[in-house]
Each structure stands twice: as structure tokens, then as C-alpha cells.
Amino acid sequence: MTPRRFVSILAACTLALGGGAAAAAPVEAAPPGAQVLKKAQRGLHRVDLKVKSEAMGGVVPVTVLSSGGTAPRGTLYLLDGADGGETVSDWITKGGAQSFFAGKNVNVVLPAGGAGSFYTNWMRKDSAIGKPQWETFLTKELPPVIAEQFGSNGRNAIMGLSMGGQAAFALAARNPELYRGVGSLSGCPPVSNPANEAYVRTTVAKSGGDANNMWGPTGGKRWRANDPALKLDALRGKAIYLGSGTGAVGPLDLTVKRDPKEGPADAQIAAGSALEAAAYRCSLEFATKLTSEGVAFTPGFRVIGTHSWVYWQRDLPEAWNALAPSIS
To answer: Beta partners for 302?
Structure first.
């Protein structure tokens, strides 16, 4: 979830990532429900897939960063925020994931096209979002494809930023047998109280959608079913990372390169500050709940930092260090 969706401004901080021209590769058989239509090599350790999904009713772009070969290794699913890229994950174009994970013995799976969706199974067709079935795709259809194409040791973790951070915890709590680790950067995992439900509804609305089509009316069972704060026992024993900045502006906010088309720099900074302050409040609320119930986690709270890639890039190594042992 980036400031642009809320106040029509976004700090543009795109990293130039290396990668060769696309090269066609043979496509192997996929399990029922998913079919790899195209497999393109974009760099030494990067492959872009086009995965036809029965659940999603279409083709989903998925980037995989891998050390190569099919030797068993752990898998990290990495989710975008509310402004996620349509064809390539923002973790690739903005977050530096390709360079960070180069040489690491892990499959990093980065789906694209999830903007405003909360990576969940929608109840009804929405005029803007459609009726995606992200949970089914990510938990049932995609893991066998990744194992077949890239090798797997059967150990998975999931992490996301902002909207994707909430989704990561919801998916882990709803599918505890699938994930051994879960993380959120600047997210708001709990959703079933009024303030946090408002955050979800606003996020969906900024993408043109209606959250009633996603989880139904206020206070309904779908909201509770996707609230990890109500399923803490399902998270117990997992590797957990929970982080956010306070929203306080720091030197990085003043020196990062910004796109003037997205509005005055001061307005961009103010928007990022407000969004991060809200994420900080919600993440602290969730941290307090985890602590009170005796669920261990690694905190990543910063006294400085706004809702910006310049901070998430710096959080990634700490978050990875917290989750990596769970899937190695």
C-alpha cells in the first residue's frame, strides 16, 4: 500500500536491476488447476512464469528467484502492497529483491497483479477487482508448480509489505500446515475491529473495489475468518517477523529521488508519514496481542521511517534473517 493510492502521490524510487533478454524454455507438466504457459529466463537467477490458474480464471504473472537446478530448497512467497505491479512484482522493480537474494539457496516466489485484492478469495465479482481466488491459487495451485519447476524441501514461508503483510498473516493463520514462517513490513494484520476494518475498506476502495464483495458486510464471518489476531494458536511456533516505522520523517526521506509527476516532495513525504503511522499503530496492537498470548516473534520496529521503499529495502535483510532458519 503506497501513498499514491491514498492521496495521488507516490515516491518513485525504481531500482535498475540486471537481467538478460527473455529466453524461451521448455515448459514441464503442471498439476491440475495450474498450467505453466510460458517460462522466460530473465537473468542468471530469475525466471518469469505465466501461470494459467483455474481458480483465478486467467493467467497470473509470477517471478521466481532461484539459485538454479532442482535440488530441494525452501520457498519464500513475497507479496506486494496495494499498488503492486500488474506484470512484475514491485519487489523486483522497486525493492531490490533480485540483487538481495542472488546466490541464496531459496526459491523466492513473487506473484504480480494483486493490487487492492488482499490476496484473498473474493466472495462476489467486483467491477474493478473481479473475483480473484488468491488464497486458492497461492496455497493450493502454485506450490506444486514451484516444487516441480524449481525443487522444494517442503518448507515454506510467506511475507509481504503493507496490504501484503496483512495477507501474509491471514494466509499463514488459515493454512498453518503450509507455512513455517510469516512476516509483515508496515502492515496491519488484525482486521476485525472498526479502525482496522476501515483501513482495509479504504485500501480496496482506492483500487476502485468494494470490500463488501471481498469479505461481506461489517462484522461478518469472513472478516473474522481473515483476522490472524483471532487465530493466534495457528501461528504459535512459527518464525514470525513484525516490523514498521513510526512515520517520523528521517534523512532518507529528504534525500531519496522523487518523481515530480507524483506531486510536491513535501506532499509525498506527508502522505508516507501518515500511512506509516497508521501501520505502526496497528502493528503494535498486533504485537501486544502476540505477546499477551505468549506467541514469540522478532520485532522490527523503527523510531524513524515512512511508508516507502527506501525503508523496506533496508528491512528486508533483517526480515529474511528471521524467517530463513524456518525453511532451510
So the answer is: 245
